[in-house]
Batch of 3 targets.
Target 1
Amino acid sequence: MALEFGAMQLIDILELSCVKVPLAATDKPQAITELVKLLDRNGKINDFQTASQAVMDREAIRSTGVGQGFAIPHGKTSAVDNIVMAVGKLRDPIDFDSIDSRPVSIIVLLVSPVHQTGPHIQALARVSRIMTSSQARQKLQDCTSPEQLYKIIADHENPADS
Protein backbone atom coordinates (compact mmCIF):
# COMPACT_ATOMS: atom_id res chain seq x y z
CA MET A 1 0.00 0.00 0.00
CA ALA A 2 1.77 3.10 -1.20
CA LEU A 3 0.51 6.24 0.46
CA GLU A 4 0.20 9.51 -1.36
CA PHE A 5 1.85 12.38 0.41
CA GLY A 6 -0.88 14.74 1.53
CA ALA A 7 -3.64 12.14 1.52
CA MET A 8 -2.64 9.96 4.45
CA GLN A 9 -4.58 9.75 7.67
CA LEU A 10 -3.45 7.92 10.77
CA ILE A 11 -6.27 5.41 10.40
CA ASP A 12 -4.77 4.49 7.02
CA ILE A 13 -1.73 3.11 8.84
CA LEU A 14 -3.14 2.13 12.24
CA GLU A 15 -5.05 -1.12 12.65
CA LEU A 16 -7.00 -2.03 15.76
CA SER A 17 -4.76 -5.11 16.13
CA CYS A 18 -1.83 -2.72 16.65
CA VAL A 19 -3.43 -0.89 19.58
CA LYS A 20 -2.78 -2.15 23.12
CA VAL A 21 -4.53 -1.01 26.29
CA PRO A 22 -2.97 -1.41 28.74
CA LEU A 23 0.71 -1.77 27.96
CA ALA A 24 2.46 -3.79 30.65
CA ALA A 25 5.79 -1.93 30.36
CA THR A 26 7.28 -0.19 33.37
CA ASP A 27 10.05 1.75 31.57
CA LYS A 28 10.85 3.33 28.21
CA PRO A 29 12.80 0.42 26.61
CA GLN A 30 10.11 -2.07 27.65
CA ALA A 31 7.36 0.15 26.22
CA ILE A 32 9.11 0.55 22.87
CA THR A 33 9.86 -3.18 22.71
CA GLU A 34 6.25 -4.07 23.58
CA LEU A 35 4.94 -1.92 20.72
CA VAL A 36 7.50 -3.19 18.18
CA LYS A 37 6.55 -6.77 19.20
CA LEU A 38 2.91 -5.86 18.58
CA LEU A 39 3.81 -4.77 15.04
CA ASP A 40 5.87 -7.92 14.56
CA ARG A 41 3.06 -10.23 15.76
CA ASN A 42 0.72 -8.55 13.29
CA GLY A 43 3.09 -9.05 10.34
CA LYS A 44 3.85 -5.34 9.94
CA ILE A 45 7.66 -5.57 10.09
CA ASN A 46 10.16 -7.83 8.35
CA ASP A 47 12.80 -7.92 11.09
CA PHE A 48 12.02 -7.31 14.77
CA GLN A 49 15.65 -6.65 15.84
CA THR A 50 16.33 -4.19 13.02
CA ALA A 51 13.09 -2.27 13.59
CA SER A 52 13.57 -2.20 17.35
CA GLN A 53 17.16 -0.99 17.00
CA ALA A 54 16.15 1.80 14.60
CA VAL A 55 13.64 3.16 17.14
CA MET A 56 16.06 2.79 20.07
CA ASP A 57 18.85 4.49 18.09
CA ARG A 58 16.54 7.44 17.31
CA GLU A 59 15.49 7.61 20.95
CA ALA A 60 19.14 7.75 22.03
CA ILE A 61 19.65 10.91 19.95
CA ARG A 62 16.82 12.80 21.64
CA SER A 63 13.84 11.68 23.67
CA THR A 64 10.53 11.50 21.84
CA GLY A 65 8.62 12.29 25.03
CA VAL A 66 6.83 15.29 23.54
CA GLY A 67 5.04 16.40 26.70
CA GLN A 68 1.57 16.34 28.23
CA GLY A 69 1.79 12.57 28.80
CA PHE A 70 2.64 11.60 25.22
CA ALA A 71 5.62 10.04 23.46
CA ILE A 72 6.11 9.38 19.75
CA PRO A 73 9.07 7.00 19.44
CA HIS A 74 9.90 6.51 15.79
CA GLY A 75 12.57 5.22 13.47
CA LYS A 76 13.42 4.68 9.83
CA THR A 77 14.58 1.26 8.75
CA SER A 78 14.74 -1.31 5.97
CA ALA A 79 12.70 -3.61 8.25
CA VAL A 80 9.43 -2.19 6.88
CA ASP A 81 8.07 -1.77 3.36
CA ASN A 82 5.57 0.96 4.31
CA ILE A 83 5.06 3.21 7.30
CA VAL A 84 3.52 1.30 10.21
CA MET A 85 2.07 2.43 13.52
CA ALA A 86 1.28 0.99 16.93
CA VAL A 87 -0.32 2.82 19.86
CA GLY A 88 -0.45 1.90 23.50
CA LYS A 89 -1.70 3.28 26.76
CA LEU A 90 0.34 2.35 29.79
CA ARG A 91 -1.24 0.88 32.90
CA ASP A 92 0.92 3.25 34.97
CA PRO A 93 2.67 6.33 33.51
CA ILE A 94 6.45 6.02 33.04
CA ASP A 95 9.40 8.38 32.80
CA PHE A 96 10.23 9.01 29.14
CA ASP A 97 12.68 11.92 29.54
CA SER A 98 9.88 14.14 28.24
CA ILE A 99 10.46 17.78 27.40
CA ASP A 100 8.05 18.81 30.18
CA SER A 101 9.52 16.25 32.65
CA ARG A 102 6.06 14.70 33.08
CA PRO A 103 5.55 10.92 32.88
CA VAL A 104 4.08 9.40 29.73
CA SER A 105 0.96 7.28 29.48
CA ILE A 106 0.19 7.32 25.73
CA ILE A 107 2.82 6.06 23.28
CA VAL A 108 2.49 6.29 19.50
CA LEU A 109 5.17 4.27 17.70
CA LEU A 110 5.94 4.93 14.03
CA VAL A 111 8.34 2.87 11.92
CA SER A 112 9.02 4.01 8.35
CA PRO A 113 11.08 2.87 5.40
CA VAL A 114 14.36 4.74 5.09
CA HIS A 115 13.37 6.52 1.87
CA GLN A 116 9.83 7.60 2.81
CA THR A 117 10.51 10.89 4.55
CA GLY A 118 7.30 12.63 3.44
CA PRO A 119 4.82 10.11 4.90
CA HIS A 120 6.97 9.80 8.04
CA ILE A 121 6.90 13.54 8.68
CA GLN A 122 3.21 13.74 7.80
CA ALA A 123 2.35 10.95 10.28
CA LEU A 124 4.35 12.70 13.01
CA ALA A 125 2.47 15.93 12.24
CA ARG A 126 -0.92 14.19 12.37
CA VAL A 127 -0.09 12.64 15.75
CA SER A 128 1.01 16.06 16.97
CA ARG A 129 -2.33 17.50 15.80
CA ILE A 130 -4.22 15.08 18.01
CA MET A 131 -2.01 15.98 20.96
CA THR A 132 -2.69 19.69 20.55
CA SER A 133 -6.39 19.02 21.20
CA SER A 134 -6.97 19.08 24.96
CA GLN A 135 -10.26 17.23 24.39
CA ALA A 136 -8.57 14.42 22.40
CA ARG A 137 -5.74 14.19 24.94
CA GLN A 138 -8.20 13.79 27.79
CA LYS A 139 -10.23 11.16 25.92
CA LEU A 140 -7.04 9.20 25.21
CA GLN A 141 -5.96 9.43 28.85
CA ASP A 142 -9.40 8.20 29.97
CA CYS A 143 -9.82 5.32 27.50
CA THR A 144 -9.89 1.78 28.87
CA SER A 145 -9.78 -0.43 25.75
CA PRO A 146 -8.00 -0.71 22.41
CA GLU A 147 -11.33 -0.15 20.67
CA GLN A 148 -11.90 3.14 22.53
CA LEU A 149 -8.39 4.37 21.77
CA TYR A 150 -8.70 3.50 18.09
CA LYS A 151 -12.11 5.21 17.86
CA ILE A 152 -10.77 8.38 19.47
CA ILE A 153 -8.05 8.59 16.82
CA ALA A 154 -10.49 7.75 14.01
CA ASP A 155 -13.02 10.33 15.24
CA HIS A 156 -10.31 12.99 15.49
CA GLU A 157 -9.20 12.23 11.92
CA ASN A 158 -12.80 12.32 10.62
CA PRO A 159 -14.82 14.58 12.92
CA ALA A 160 -17.85 14.50 10.61
CA ASP A 161 -18.16 10.74 11.10
CA SER A 162 -18.30 10.88 14.90
Target 2
Amino acid sequence: MVDLNPIEQLVVQAMKELGATKAEALKTADDIAKKSNRPKSMVTNTLVALANKGVIKRVAREKASGYYVVQA
Protein backbone atom coordinates (compact mmCIF):
# COMPACT_ATOMS: atom_id res chain seq x y z
CA MET A 1 0.00 0.00 0.00
CA VAL A 2 1.34 3.38 -1.00
CA ASP A 3 1.37 6.17 1.58
CA LEU A 4 -0.92 8.97 0.44
CA ASN A 5 -1.12 12.51 1.75
CA PRO A 6 -4.56 13.88 2.78
CA ILE A 7 -5.27 15.51 -0.60
CA GLU A 8 -4.33 12.31 -2.46
CA GLN A 9 -6.61 10.32 -0.15
CA LEU A 10 -9.45 12.79 -0.83
CA VAL A 11 -8.99 12.50 -4.61
CA VAL A 12 -8.89 8.68 -4.53
CA GLN A 13 -12.01 8.63 -2.32
CA ALA A 14 -13.82 10.98 -4.74
CA MET A 15 -12.84 8.74 -7.66
CA LYS A 16 -14.19 5.66 -5.86
CA GLU A 17 -17.46 7.45 -5.07
CA LEU A 18 -17.76 8.38 -8.75
CA GLY A 19 -17.23 4.73 -9.69
CA ALA A 20 -13.91 5.31 -11.47
CA THR A 21 -12.49 1.92 -10.54
CA LYS A 22 -12.00 0.32 -13.96
CA ALA A 23 -10.94 1.34 -17.46
CA GLU A 24 -14.56 1.34 -18.68
CA ALA A 25 -15.55 3.95 -16.06
CA LEU A 26 -13.10 6.80 -16.62
CA LYS A 27 -13.64 10.18 -14.99
CA THR A 28 -12.12 13.52 -15.99
CA ALA A 29 -10.24 15.93 -13.74
CA ASP A 30 -13.33 18.19 -13.89
CA ASP A 31 -15.57 15.40 -12.57
CA ILE A 32 -13.14 14.62 -9.76
CA ALA A 33 -12.64 18.29 -8.84
CA LYS A 34 -16.41 18.82 -8.54
CA LYS A 35 -16.86 15.70 -6.42
CA SER A 36 -13.92 16.47 -4.12
CA ASN A 37 -14.83 20.19 -3.90
CA ARG A 38 -11.22 21.20 -4.62
CA PRO A 39 -9.75 23.48 -7.33
CA LYS A 40 -9.17 21.74 -10.65
CA SER A 41 -5.48 22.77 -10.65
CA MET A 42 -4.94 21.06 -7.29
CA VAL A 43 -6.77 17.94 -8.46
CA THR A 44 -4.79 17.83 -11.72
CA ASN A 45 -1.46 18.04 -9.85
CA THR A 46 -2.64 15.36 -7.43
CA LEU A 47 -3.72 13.08 -10.30
CA VAL A 48 -0.22 13.35 -11.80
CA ALA A 49 1.34 12.45 -8.45
CA LEU A 50 -1.05 9.50 -7.98
CA ALA A 51 -0.32 8.23 -11.51
CA ASN A 52 3.42 8.40 -10.78
CA LYS A 53 2.86 6.34 -7.61
CA GLY A 54 0.87 3.77 -9.60
CA VAL A 55 -2.35 4.29 -7.63
CA ILE A 56 -4.34 5.47 -10.65
CA LYS A 57 -4.10 5.17 -14.42
CA ARG A 58 -4.36 8.03 -16.90
CA VAL A 59 -5.92 7.33 -20.28
CA ALA A 60 -5.29 9.96 -22.97
CA ARG A 61 -8.42 10.61 -25.01
CA GLU A 62 -9.36 12.99 -27.79
CA LYS A 63 -10.77 15.72 -25.54
CA ALA A 64 -10.05 15.28 -21.83
CA SER A 65 -7.90 12.58 -20.28
CA GLY A 66 -9.70 10.01 -18.14
CA TYR A 67 -8.55 8.53 -14.87
CA TYR A 68 -9.40 5.46 -12.82
CA VAL A 69 -8.17 3.82 -9.60
CA VAL A 70 -6.05 0.67 -9.96
CA GLN A 71 -5.09 0.17 -6.30
CA ALA A 72 -5.98 1.75 -3.01
Target 3
Amino acid sequence: MPASLDANLKAVRQTVARSAERAGRDPMQVELVAVTKGFPVERIREAIAVGLRIFGENRVQEALPKIEEIGPADVDWHLIGHLQTNKIKFIEGRFRMVQSVDGAALAEALDGRLQSPLDVLVEVNVAEEPQKTGAPAADLAILTGAVQATQHLRLRGLMTVAPMVEDPEAVRSVFRRLRVLRDETSQRLGVPLPVLSMGMTDDYAVAVEEGATMLRLGRALFGPR
Protein backbone atom coordinates (compact mmCIF):
# COMPACT_ATOMS: atom_id res chain seq x y z
CA MET A 1 0.00 0.00 0.00
CA PRO A 2 1.43 3.40 -0.92
CA ALA A 3 2.42 5.30 2.19
CA SER A 4 1.17 8.48 0.54
CA LEU A 5 -2.51 7.80 1.17
CA ASP A 6 -1.98 7.24 4.88
CA ALA A 7 0.29 10.30 5.06
CA ASN A 8 -2.17 12.41 3.08
CA LEU A 9 -5.02 11.38 5.36
CA LYS A 10 -3.03 12.35 8.44
CA ALA A 11 -2.17 15.72 6.87
CA VAL A 12 -5.82 16.36 6.03
CA ARG A 13 -6.90 15.52 9.57
CA GLN A 14 -4.25 17.85 10.99
CA THR A 15 -5.47 20.66 8.74
CA VAL A 16 -9.08 20.00 9.75
CA ALA A 17 -8.09 20.00 13.42
CA ARG A 18 -6.27 23.35 13.10
CA SER A 19 -9.16 24.94 11.20
CA ALA A 20 -11.71 23.61 13.67
CA GLU A 21 -9.65 24.93 16.57
CA ARG A 22 -9.54 28.40 15.01
CA ALA A 23 -13.34 28.33 14.72
CA GLY A 24 -13.92 26.88 18.19
CA ARG A 25 -15.31 23.68 16.71
CA ASP A 26 -14.82 19.99 17.43
CA PRO A 27 -12.93 18.42 14.48
CA MET A 28 -14.90 15.22 15.07
CA GLN A 29 -17.92 17.09 13.65
CA VAL A 30 -16.27 17.04 10.21
CA GLU A 31 -16.67 13.96 8.00
CA LEU A 32 -14.47 13.18 5.03
CA VAL A 33 -15.93 12.05 1.73
CA ALA A 34 -13.19 10.43 -0.33
CA VAL A 35 -13.92 11.43 -3.93
CA THR A 36 -13.02 8.41 -6.07
CA LYS A 37 -13.94 9.81 -9.48
CA GLY A 38 -11.22 8.69 -11.88
CA PHE A 39 -9.57 6.34 -9.38
CA PRO A 40 -9.64 2.54 -9.67
CA VAL A 41 -11.07 0.09 -7.16
CA GLU A 42 -7.57 -0.69 -5.87
CA ARG A 43 -7.28 2.85 -4.49
CA ILE A 44 -10.68 2.53 -2.86
CA ARG A 45 -9.58 -0.64 -1.11
CA GLU A 46 -6.47 1.19 0.14
CA ALA A 47 -8.69 3.99 1.43
CA ILE A 48 -10.88 1.52 3.30
CA ALA A 49 -7.74 -0.01 4.81
CA VAL A 50 -6.67 3.35 6.28
CA GLY A 51 -10.09 3.98 7.78
CA LEU A 52 -12.04 5.98 5.20
CA ARG A 53 -15.68 4.98 5.06
CA ILE A 54 -17.56 7.47 2.85
CA PHE A 55 -16.90 7.52 -0.89
CA GLY A 56 -18.20 10.09 -3.35
CA GLU A 57 -18.73 9.56 -7.06
CA ASN A 58 -19.74 12.17 -9.61
CA ARG A 59 -21.33 9.90 -12.20
CA VAL A 60 -23.67 6.98 -11.62
CA GLN A 61 -22.27 5.02 -14.56
CA GLU A 62 -18.73 5.18 -13.19
CA ALA A 63 -19.85 4.37 -9.67
CA LEU A 64 -21.90 1.26 -10.39
CA PRO A 65 -19.06 -1.15 -11.28
CA LYS A 66 -17.00 0.11 -8.34
CA ILE A 67 -19.87 -0.40 -5.92
CA GLU A 68 -20.42 -3.89 -7.27
CA GLU A 69 -16.74 -4.82 -7.07
CA ILE A 70 -16.28 -3.50 -3.54
CA GLY A 71 -19.40 -5.43 -2.58
CA PRO A 72 -20.82 -5.61 0.93
CA ALA A 73 -18.56 -3.56 3.16
CA ASP A 74 -18.83 -1.09 5.99
CA VAL A 75 -18.82 1.88 3.61
CA ASP A 76 -21.31 4.47 2.37
CA TRP A 77 -21.52 5.71 -1.21
CA HIS A 78 -22.61 9.27 -1.94
CA LEU A 79 -23.55 10.66 -5.32
CA ILE A 80 -21.99 14.12 -5.41
CA GLY A 81 -22.43 14.96 -9.09
CA HIS A 82 -25.51 15.87 -11.09
CA LEU A 83 -28.16 13.14 -11.14
CA GLN A 84 -29.74 12.59 -14.53
CA THR A 85 -33.33 11.40 -14.42
CA ASN A 86 -32.52 8.34 -16.53
CA LYS A 87 -30.06 7.20 -13.83
CA ILE A 88 -32.51 7.47 -10.93
CA LYS A 89 -33.37 3.78 -11.19
CA PHE A 90 -29.83 2.86 -10.09
CA ILE A 91 -29.83 4.84 -6.82
CA GLU A 92 -31.73 2.66 -4.37
CA GLY A 93 -29.70 0.02 -2.59
CA ARG A 94 -26.43 1.51 -3.79
CA PHE A 95 -26.15 5.10 -2.58
CA ARG A 96 -26.53 6.13 1.04
CA MET A 97 -26.93 9.80 0.11
CA VAL A 98 -27.54 11.95 -2.96
CA GLN A 99 -25.87 15.31 -2.35
CA SER A 100 -26.97 16.94 -5.57
CA VAL A 101 -30.75 17.38 -5.58
CA ASP A 102 -31.15 20.66 -7.45
CA GLY A 103 -34.74 20.80 -8.61
CA ALA A 104 -38.26 19.92 -7.51
CA ALA A 105 -38.90 17.76 -10.59
CA LEU A 106 -35.77 15.71 -9.83
CA ALA A 107 -36.82 15.31 -6.19
CA GLU A 108 -40.25 14.09 -7.20
CA ALA A 109 -38.88 11.71 -9.84
CA LEU A 110 -36.36 10.29 -7.38
CA ASP A 111 -38.99 9.84 -4.71
CA GLY A 112 -41.20 8.03 -7.19
CA ARG A 113 -38.59 5.32 -7.77
CA LEU A 114 -37.75 4.68 -4.12
CA GLN A 115 -39.16 2.04 -1.81
CA SER A 116 -37.14 3.06 1.25
CA PRO A 117 -35.85 6.31 2.80
CA LEU A 118 -32.87 8.09 1.21
CA ASP A 119 -30.81 10.89 2.73
CA VAL A 120 -30.41 13.87 0.40
CA LEU A 121 -28.81 17.28 0.33
CA VAL A 122 -30.06 20.18 -1.74
CA GLU A 123 -27.29 21.56 -3.94
CA VAL A 124 -27.17 25.35 -4.01
CA ASN A 125 -25.29 27.32 -6.66
CA VAL A 126 -24.37 30.01 -4.14
CA ALA A 127 -22.03 31.87 -6.49
CA GLU A 128 -24.59 31.67 -9.33
CA GLU A 129 -22.04 30.35 -11.81
CA PRO A 130 -23.94 29.72 -15.07
CA GLN A 131 -21.84 26.66 -16.01
CA LYS A 132 -22.61 24.82 -12.78
CA THR A 133 -25.58 22.85 -11.56
CA GLY A 134 -27.29 23.62 -8.29
CA ALA A 135 -30.39 25.59 -7.43
CA PRO A 136 -30.18 29.36 -7.09
CA ALA A 137 -30.58 30.55 -3.52
CA ALA A 138 -33.81 32.29 -4.52
CA ASP A 139 -35.40 28.88 -5.27
CA LEU A 140 -34.29 27.26 -2.02
CA ALA A 141 -37.54 27.70 -0.10
CA ILE A 142 -39.64 26.13 -2.86
CA LEU A 143 -37.17 23.31 -3.47
CA THR A 144 -36.65 22.34 0.15
CA GLY A 145 -40.40 22.43 0.64
CA ALA A 146 -40.82 20.05 -2.30
CA VAL A 147 -38.23 17.67 -0.84
CA GLN A 148 -39.94 17.76 2.55
CA ALA A 149 -43.25 16.90 0.87
CA THR A 150 -41.92 13.65 -0.60
CA GLN A 151 -42.48 10.27 0.99
CA HIS A 152 -38.95 8.85 0.89
CA LEU A 153 -36.43 11.71 0.73
CA ARG A 154 -34.91 12.79 4.03
CA LEU A 155 -33.47 16.29 3.78
CA ARG A 156 -30.25 16.39 5.81
CA GLY A 157 -28.75 19.72 4.77
CA LEU A 158 -27.22 21.69 1.92
CA MET A 159 -24.28 21.31 -0.46
CA THR A 160 -22.37 23.71 -2.67
CA VAL A 161 -19.42 23.71 -5.04
CA ALA A 162 -17.45 26.92 -4.61
CA PRO A 163 -15.80 28.68 -7.57
CA MET A 164 -12.26 27.60 -8.43
CA VAL A 165 -9.93 30.34 -7.22
CA GLU A 166 -6.24 30.63 -6.40
CA ASP A 167 -6.86 32.14 -2.98
CA PRO A 168 -9.35 30.15 -0.88
CA GLU A 169 -10.11 33.29 1.10
CA ALA A 170 -11.95 34.47 -2.02
CA VAL A 171 -14.65 31.83 -1.48
CA ARG A 172 -15.06 32.24 2.27
CA SER A 173 -18.20 34.30 1.63
CA VAL A 174 -19.68 31.41 -0.40
CA PHE A 175 -19.30 29.00 2.50
CA ARG A 176 -20.59 31.57 4.96
CA ARG A 177 -23.63 32.18 2.77
CA LEU A 178 -24.43 28.45 2.58
CA ARG A 179 -24.30 28.21 6.36
CA VAL A 180 -26.73 31.12 6.68
CA LEU A 181 -29.04 29.55 4.09
CA ARG A 182 -28.93 26.26 5.99
CA ASP A 183 -29.79 27.97 9.26
CA GLU A 184 -32.65 29.90 7.67
CA THR A 185 -33.99 26.75 5.99
CA SER A 186 -33.81 24.76 9.20
CA GLN A 187 -35.71 27.45 11.05
CA ARG A 188 -38.32 27.79 8.30
CA LEU A 189 -38.97 24.05 8.07
CA GLY A 190 -38.69 23.47 11.80
CA VAL A 191 -36.31 20.53 11.36
CA PRO A 192 -32.60 20.06 12.10
CA LEU A 193 -30.36 20.15 9.02
CA PRO A 194 -27.00 19.00 10.38
CA VAL A 195 -25.09 18.57 7.12
CA LEU A 196 -23.14 21.31 5.35
CA SER A 197 -21.27 19.63 2.49
CA MET A 198 -18.78 22.24 1.31
CA GLY A 199 -15.06 22.39 0.82
CA MET A 200 -12.80 20.51 -1.59
CA THR A 201 -9.07 19.98 -1.90
CA ASP A 202 -8.13 23.62 -2.57
CA ASP A 203 -10.40 25.31 -0.04
CA TYR A 204 -11.42 22.85 2.67
CA ALA A 205 -9.51 24.57 5.48
CA VAL A 206 -11.61 27.71 5.00
CA ALA A 207 -14.78 25.62 4.65
CA VAL A 208 -14.17 24.03 8.05
CA GLU A 209 -13.73 27.47 9.62
CA GLU A 210 -17.11 28.45 8.16
CA GLY A 211 -18.97 25.41 9.47
CA ALA A 212 -18.53 22.56 6.99
CA THR A 213 -19.54 19.18 8.39
CA MET A 214 -18.66 17.21 5.27
CA LEU A 215 -15.62 17.70 2.99
CA ARG A 216 -15.37 16.22 -0.49
CA LEU A 217 -11.70 15.43 -1.07
CA GLY A 218 -10.01 13.75 -4.02
CA ARG A 219 -6.52 15.06 -4.73
CA ALA A 220 -5.88 15.90 -1.06
CA LEU A 221 -6.16 12.19 -0.29
CA PHE A 222 -5.21 10.32 -3.44
CA GLY A 223 -2.92 12.75 -5.22
CA PRO A 224 -3.32 13.73 -8.88
CA ARG A 225 -5.60 11.64 -11.06
